[in-house]
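Supplementary Methods, section 5.1.

A reviewer requested that the exact input to the structure prediction be made available. We therefore reproduce it here, unchanged from the version used in the analyses.
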Amino acid sequence: QLRLVESGGGLVQPGGSLRLSCAGSGFNLDNYVIGWFRQAPGKERKGISCISSADASTHYEDFVKDRFTISRDSAKNTVYLQMHNLKPDDTAVYYCAAVRRYYCAGYVLFVDYDYWGQGAQVTVSS
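The structure derived from this sequence is encoded token-by-token as follows.
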């Protein structure tokens, strides 16, 4: 069974940090562009960042640039999203997703992804 499983969400104070993990099961994440998305209550799902399969190059949307970092650990078949300086507006359910492509760029956050994780709640509040 092909699955993505997110973990690492939780409650954090403004200015704090969290690291989300996206573990692949049944397939090799290195062969896929992995994207991170989030959906806040009452809002549409929004793309955040993606990492290429060909060369691990990355893309970030402006609203997370310089605060979030996406990375791969091939040995663990896992992609991470390290989040720093979190703000209340970052509160959302975070999803990872996989699509069979070589490179990511801004437009790749809008294509149809093949696999989705179940989501991880991130709440930023004092």
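The mean pLDDT is 96. These observations are discussed further in the main text.
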